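dumping this here so i dont lose it
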């Protein structure tokens, strides 16, 4: 014991003796070798120099991304697997008329951007069902799981060992024993409290389990960044789910801390399900080391879903692109889509998000829209689940109010829905929050829906939610207590540490 203490003391003495050089090395790394915006660079430099010891630890836990290129090299290669992307690009660039009833020419440039930057194909044979209540969503999911006869691919950021998981896991085990291939992918941070015993029980039934960046020492998770925040379910390539609900009792409104849990989740059918399947496969291949692309059975659909020049006149076309973003991507795909939608809006922009910590580009786009006469409305929760982020959110609300936007707090429990609706024409819903972490550090996935009927349905839900909201007025915002303002500004200043 004495020897160990002497070793710790020696290490501490060495760190203190060379602290100036350690800070200098990290400063050089931050300034010259990492892709950061200037505000983030200056914030980290201030932390390293004014909080030298703890700042050094914080940087190791939160700030470093030195291994990013190596960590995701395999994923970057796999992300080049495109399905007729070039054909869609050529069609959009050369056809003489727009896609008429199923895609306005106003949004063809956005479709093309998503195709060229990430290979997000456009599918037009889809259906969408919207869930805003956890009990309803999971009742429907269990029903679809029981019908699976080929495979079940289930991916969630958070999976907790409680009554909700206990209502799902027996179905997964039964389907696996019946010969259905069942895979569960969970993030190492979000699933850190799941007992290994539960995973082992499922594995014994034939369920395959993958953990994205698992903890290295029990429940200890040293890597705070690069979390897989996606929630995807694909069943037999027939049905897919994407949205905000995780697996935990709070998501079905059974946690008194949050009360009613208001979220948004989409159930999809059609070609968009295959796009979700590709997204799941890329994440699974990286986390589990199993290359699903070697077996094309997982990607069979029985039809050419991606031909834009062959539309069945007997169906109502519903266009969807599944877009993803994360630290493995060169562009900030979901953020860029938001900015483009904000720029195109002529009448209104409705936003729901539990966290509003935008970067300068997003904040500027919204401010310009509001000052240009666009009806910009932001809905956030009335209570925090992460106080630091909540205080930062409230700080940025002031910027929107100053620009003429209207902001609301949802008062009927906790708001966790994540989406944008513009002009009753196009919407984007999925897993991404309106914050820097979702834009840059987390793996996220959204569905961009080019359909007036679906967008208006979501907007009507938004308008109904307003009845359960309290508006943040300029006068009320200006009268905040001094201590609240201090917390907000400190949180805002520290937010670039992400």
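and the seq i came up w/
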């Amino acid at each position: 014991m004495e020897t160990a203490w002497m070793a710790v003391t020696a290490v501490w003495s060495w760190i203190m003796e060379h602290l100036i050089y350690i800070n200098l090395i990290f400063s050089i790394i931050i300034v010259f070798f990492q892709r950061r915006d200037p505000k983030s660079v200056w914030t980290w430099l201030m932390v390293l120099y004014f909080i030298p010891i703890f700042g050094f630890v914080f940087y190791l836990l939160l700030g470093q991304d030195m291994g990013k290129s190596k960590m995701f090299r395999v994923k970057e290669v796999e992300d080049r697997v495109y399905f007729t992307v070039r054909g869609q690009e050529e069609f959009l660039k050369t056809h003489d008329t727009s896609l008429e009833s199923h895609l306005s020419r106003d949004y063809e440039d956005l479709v093309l951007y998503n195709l060229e930057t990430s290979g997000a194909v456009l599918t037009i044979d889809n259906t969408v069902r919207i869930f805003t209540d956890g009990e309803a969503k999971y009742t429907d999911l269990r029903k679809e799981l029981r019908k699976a006869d080929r495979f079940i691919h289930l991916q969630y950021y958070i999976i907790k060992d409680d009554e909700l998981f206990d209502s799902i896991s027996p179905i997964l085990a039964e389907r696996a024993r019946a010969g259905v291939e069942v895979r569960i992918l969970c993030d190492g941070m979000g699933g850190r409290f799941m007992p290994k015993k539960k995973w082992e029980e499922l594995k014994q039934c034939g369920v395959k389990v993958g953990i994205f960046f698992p903890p290295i020492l029990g429940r200890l998770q040293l890597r705070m960044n690069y979390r897989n925040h996606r929630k995807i379910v694909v069943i037999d390539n027939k049905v897919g789910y994407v949205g905000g609900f995780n697996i935990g009792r709070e998501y079905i409104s059974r946690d008194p801390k949050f009360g009613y849990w208001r979220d948004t989740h989409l159930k999809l059918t059609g070609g968009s399900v295959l796009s979700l399947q590709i997204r799941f496969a890329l994440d699974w291949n990286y986390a589990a080391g199993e290359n699903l692309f070697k077996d094309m059975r997982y990607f069979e659909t029985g039809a050419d879903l991606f031909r834009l020049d062959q539309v069945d006149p007997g169906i109502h076309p519903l266009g969807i692109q599944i877009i993803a973003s994360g630290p493995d991507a060169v562009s900030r795909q979901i953020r860029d889509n938001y900015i483009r939608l904000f720029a195109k809006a002529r009448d209104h922009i409705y936003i729901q998000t539990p966290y509003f910590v935008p970067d300068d580009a997003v904040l500027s786009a919204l401010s310009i829209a509001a000052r240009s006469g666009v009806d910009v409305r932001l809905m956030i929760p009335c209570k925090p689940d992460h106080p630091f982020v909540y205080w930062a959110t409230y700080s940025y609300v002031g910027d929107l109010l100053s620009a003429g936007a209207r902001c609301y707090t949802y008062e009927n429990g906790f708001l966790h829905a994540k989406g944008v609706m513009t002009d009753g024409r196009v919407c984007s819903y999925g897993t991404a929050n309106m914050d820097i972490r979702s834009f840059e550090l987390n793996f996220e996935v959204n569905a961009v829906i080019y359909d007036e009927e679906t967008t208006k349905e979501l907007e009507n839900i938004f308008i109904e939610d307003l009845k359960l909201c309290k508006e943040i007025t300029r006068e009320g915002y200006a009268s905040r207590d001094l201590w609240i303002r201090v917390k907000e500004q400190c949180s805002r200043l520290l937010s670039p540490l992400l």
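The chain is about 45% helix and 20% strand.
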